[in-house]
Amino acid sequence: MLLSAQAYEKIDRELAKFPGDQRQSAIMASLAIAQEEKGWLPAEIIEDVANYIGVPPIAVQEVATFYNMFDVKPVGTHKIAVCTNLPCALRNGVSAADYLKRKLGVDFRETTADGKFTLIEGECMGACGDSPVLIVNNKHMCVRMSEQKLDALVDGLKSQGEPA
């Protein structure tokens, strides 16, 4: 067992939501629990989740590599996903992404040298009219991100966990 007892308890609660012959339905939630605890999903965690759920490891691997909310490589403390799909691209999504690339000194799928930020292209986030749109750590959606708002976001994230 590679996860904490609390993580397996959470996975058990997810499994309880589905009939016994539909255990694969808990894959996404289980991966989210594992990633929350470990920060990313190395191969051994994916295999452990598969064994715990009782599904083939390839079934879990397919989910982990299909959805960009799951990280199969290490990422920074703060993962920023910027929507660059066409509607957002037409409303400054690409400009916002380019600004973040310059500000952070990284390209998409790269992590800053200090390990604090990973920048990725996100898929549609369903808020096209509020572009530029981004999601921080798969949980916090930010909309209408001007350069000033991007500066404030990055500065705020940089100061998290640092002494005041």
UniProtKB/TrEMBL annotation:
Class in the EC hierarchy, top level: oxidoreductase
Keyword terms, alphabetized: 2Fe-2S, Iron, Iron-sulfur, Metal-binding, Oxidoreductase
Cofactor: [2Fe-2S] cluster
Gene Ontology molecular functions: 2 iron, 2 sulfur cluster binding; metal ion binding; NADH dehydrogenase activity
Catalytic activity: a quinone + NADH + 5 H(+)(in) = a quinol + NAD(+) + 4 H(+)(out)
InterPro entries in UniProt: NuoE-like (IPR002023), NuoE_dom (IPR042128), NuoE_N (IPR041921), Thioredoxin-like_sf (IPR036249)
Enzyme Commission no: 1.6.5.11, 1.6.5.3
Gene3D superfamilies, per database record: Glutaredoxin, NADH-quinone oxidoreductase subunit E
Domain of life: Bacteria
Positions contributing to [2Fe-2S] cluster binding: C83, C88, C124, C128
Cofactor note: Binds 1 [2Fe-2S] cluster.
Keyword Iron-sulfur annotated: yes
Family: Belongs to the complex I 24 kDa subunit family.
Database matches in PANTHER family: NADH DEHYDROGENASE [UBIQUINONE] FLAVOPROTEIN 2, MITOCHONDRIAL, NADH DEHYDROGENASE UBIQUINONE FLAVOPROTEIN 2, MITOCHONDRIAL
NCBIfam families (alphabetical): nuoE_fam (TIGR01958), PRK07539.1-3 (NF005723)
Protein name: NADH dehydrogenase subunit E
Species: Bordetella trematum
Phylogenetic classification of the source organism: Bacteria, Pseudomonadati, Pseudomonadota, Betaproteobacteria, Burkholderiales
